[in-house]
Amino acid sequence: MTPSPALSDPFHCGCETEPVPGAPVSVDVALRQGLELAEPVAELERLPLGKAHGRVLGETVRAETPLPLFDNSAMDGYAIRLADLAGEGPWRLPVAGRVAAGDAGNGPVPAGSVLRIFTGAPIPPGCEAVVMQEMTQPEGGTIRLDRRPEPGENIRRSGEDLAAGAEVMPAGRRIGPRAAALLASTGCGEVIVRRRIRVAFFSTGSELRAPGTPLAPGQIWNANRYHLQGALDLPWAEAMDMGAVADRPDRLREALEEASRNADLVVSTGGVSVGEEDHMPAVLRAAGGTVHVMKVAMKPGKPLLIGRIGKALYLGLPGNPVSAFVTWHVIGARIAEALAGLAEGAPRRIIVRAGFDRVRQPGRCEFLPARLGSYDGHGTRTVEIATSEVSHRVALLAQADGLLLVPSETDRIQRGDMLEFLPFHEG
Ligand SMILES: Nc1nc2c(c(=O)[nH]1)N[C@H]1C(S)=C(S)[C@@H](COP(=O)(O)OP(=O)(O)OC[C@H]3O[C@@H](n4cnc5c(N)ncnc54)[C@H](O)[C@@H]3O)O[C@H]1N2
Ligand code: MOO
């Protein structure tokens, strides 16, 4: 599959250089390789529009009718014929009838008269303009009019928003609130959507316990499980939460195999680094899977496995909670969107100004939890970071406004430098 431009929009984090075997690949290369593996789910479903919110449109929709459907009034006022306004104003014209939204509106405006008309009502034959009622003075069954309206004034023309036969929405669009309003306006009572992708996920780590349960020395509460539960609470995904699995190769293999039988995408956290307790690369291979990416030149998130097992795509995110979040946010979510057939979704990026000075070691692209500060005189916001050692700093992450993107080749950031920033959508 050729990834769509939006999904593969590069981070310019070193993709210009040729990958060296065994060395970390750039974020862009990792993303591209993941997207190449992500064949969109093929099955389609027909759903009533009211049950399709947030789903991914499976077919391009074309308009069978124009939008607006018929010429109609943009204002509450009076439908007039311009020929009735002879000479200089003011003019006085009798009100011969009324037409409201929902009326069939077949009767013409009688010559020498006006019709009372309301917003959304069909424009009666002969009517060349609608005069807002505020521009008229009613006087005993007549109106007085001081100004000659322009031809077509306050008339919303049929087809001016969308012509009959035009594309309403392309396949791959998420049916968000705006899309739903348009589909409804063009009469789409049912839509064809892609089936939900199935995502199985588990956390690895013998130290992990569920929050709310007591801990023995050395144990911690599982954060990544709850991050992924939230991140996968999506209308176009069916999440299968497999809980936590101890750092034992046999258990991990069982979990991986079970997940891959049921899911399009398997996500695990932890166990992807180089320690003796980091089993996932070996477990993936032992289970017949293939490894496509092992390490990415990013911080946090250097150890990141992208592979395949059976029919499923596999993502082994690092265990450190901020590393797991960043790798999911920047790479994992893009891959999930591509599997779901979504043609959009790369995180929005804005330009900010550094509010700090920092000298750094080039070579890895950084995605640092950061807070936005005040605006400069040109409407650009300053950004502040607390530290670059962030991989375990969940509090810093939760308090951040987004991720500051530091390109891999950067060796120095000076106050006032312009940088890219990925704002978080949620509050
Ligand atoms: N010798 C090296 N050690 C490490 C390297 C390295 O290159 N050489 N990389 C470091 C980096 S960077 C990261 S990131 C971590 C990633 O390691 P793993 O993915 O194997 O993760 P674990 O070792 O299983 O866990 C790391 C850390 O995160 C905690 N953790 C794990 N899962 C959870 C969870 N579900 N909720 C909360 N916290 C979790 C775990 O307890 C560890 O503290 O490796 C570095 N080491
Ligand atoms: O790369 Mo690790 O993910 O920094 O913490």
UniProtKB/TrEMBL annotation:
Signal peptide: none annotated. One of its GO terms (molecular function) is molybdopterin molybdotransferase activity. It catalyses: adenylyl-molybdopterin + molybdate = Mo-molybdopterin + AMP + H(+). It is an enzyme of class 2 (transferase). Keywords: Magnesium, Metal-binding, Molybdenum, Molybdenum cofactor biosynthesis, Transferase. GO terms for cellular component: cytosol. Pathway: Cofactor biosynthesis; molybdopterin biosynthesis. One of its GO terms (biological process) is Mo-molybdopterin cofactor biosynthetic process. InterPro entries: MoaB/Mog-like_dom_sf (IPR036425), MoaB/Mog_dom (IPR001453), MoCF_biosynth_CS (IPR008284), MoeA-like (IPR038987), MoeA_C_domain_IV (IPR005111), MoeA_C_domain_IV_sf (IPR036688), MoeA_linker/N (IPR005110), MoeA_linker/N_sf (IPR036135). Its cofactor is Mg(2+). It comes from the Bacteria. Its EC number is 2.10.1.1. Residues 200-338 form the MoaB/Mog domain. Belongs to the MoeA family. Catalyzes the insertion of molybdate into adenylated molybdopterin with the concomitant release of AMP. This is Molybdopterin molybdenumtransferase.
